Amino acid sequence: MKLFANKAGMTSRSAIALAALGALAMVPAAAPAQTVAVPTAENPFGLPEDVTIFGKTDPDSRTATAVVNGFVITGTDIDQRVALVTAASEAPIAEEELLRLRVQVLRNLIDETLKIQAAEAQEMKVTREEVEQTYQQLAAQNFGAQPEKMDEYLLSIGSSPAALKRQIEGEMAWENVLRRNVIPFVNVSAEEVNDVLKRLNEAKGTDEYRLGEIYLSATSENREAVLRNVNAIIEQLQQGGSFVAYARQFSEATTAVVGGDLGWVRLGQLPPQLASVARTMQPGQLNGPIEIPGGFSIIYLINKRQVLMADPNEALLNLKQISIAFPEGVSEAEAEARVGQFGSFIEGLRGCADVEAGASAIGAQVVSNDQIKAANLPEQLRNIVLNLQIGQTTPLFGGVQEGVRVLMLCGRDDPPDAGAPTFQSVMNSIEEERINKRAQRYLRDLRNDAYIEYN
């Protein structure tokens, strides 16, 4: 343990002892004694069940700043990083949840600092030019021909370009560290890859899932605190928070860099706890917290398809949208009558050839598109449309403000069956999983060796 001298010249250990003595003086004489516990496999520290705490301690209420091996993390750093996470949230965040979020962000900033310091210690420091290049690429992706708008946007949400650049530096530094210290020592044999390819061919036609995951590690000591953080993240995601943004900020898996995207996986490739949950999910659905060995996961089902089969979401559709609008100030009775007339017209259609002539008779508008990809439809409509036969329509949808409409399927070109994954793609998948596990252990060792002072 490292000791710090305080202003009076005593060590922090002496100061803690005096504080404990002061607390003891305030404990009533009749207070029950703590039960002496014997260390066991489940309780390695021999902690008593009835712990007496000296003074009021609430780690979530502690001032969220720290010094990591001499590098200062300020309250401003935390505020700006929190703003990056919460910018996509459509609902206000409760004060209690915001406090938990700040504590989690502090942990992330500590890990990020350790990653940057590890790269610097091994003479793999990320240059300012490399960070700036990546930053400009992100700006171009999000703001097109006006990348300078990135700076304005970050400042408008309470963050800063420096905060995002620091995150970029942390991700690039970690990639450098893993490239030297982890990746060269991960080996996958040809036999392992061929075995996976064989199982894939045997599983042709079964379901596979494209999942996003946010993973937070937990131990028996911090399990409850981590679980609270996971629940807080889920609440924000349910209120409109960006899964990709939260994964980049909070996930401890190496897939955090790509927003938690696990790619296409089969249930047999997942931990049993995740597999049993994913099996019942629909695209666009979020689920968690899911306790797995070593921590908790939140999973998001991005898409679903069948192994080595054509992905229906890649189908090109020929659709006609038939819609009616309502005049301003229309009464409820008039609107209901208009919808009833429209519904009767739709039921009477015998196919796509009837649409234009009949629509003009009742004042409906028709828009055709013969090159729309199924994946580009809203999730609520995609599965309905993909189950239609040629000439059939969706149920009516919409409202008075935006109009009532239906989609009619007039053609569908399915993609060819997906080819078997390549030898290299399977090898990359296995390597990624092993790199992820070793990276978690490497970061844990960095934490254990760190010199961290909380303020």
UniProtKB/TrEMBL annotation:
<dbReference type="InterPro" id="IPR046357">
    <property type="entry name" value="PPIase_dom_sf"/>
</dbReference>
<keyword id="KW-0413">Isomerase</keyword>
<dbReference type="Pfam" id="PF13624">
    <property type="entry name" value="SurA_N_3"/>
</dbReference>
<dbReference type="InterPro" id="IPR000297">
    <property type="entry name" value="PPIase_PpiC"/>
</dbReference>
<dbReference type="GO" id="GO:0003755">
    <property type="term" value="F:peptidyl-prolyl cis-trans isomerase activity"/>
</dbReference>
<keyword id="KW-0732">Signal</keyword>
<protein>
    <recommendedName>
        <fullName>Parvulin-like PPIase</fullName>
    </recommendedName>
</protein>
<dbReference type="Pfam" id="PF00639">
    <property type="entry name" value="Rotamase"/>
</dbReference>
<keyword id="KW-0697">Rotamase</keyword>
<dbReference type="InterPro" id="IPR050280">
    <property type="entry name" value="OMP_Chaperone_SurA"/>
</dbReference>
<feature type="domain" description="PpiC">
    <location>
        <begin position="206"/>
        <end position="303"/>
    </location>
</feature>
<dbReference type="InterPro" id="IPR027304">
    <property type="entry name" value="Trigger_fact/SurA_dom_sf"/>
</dbReference>
<feature type="signal peptide">
    <location>
        <begin position="1"/>
        <end position="33"/>
    </location>
</feature>
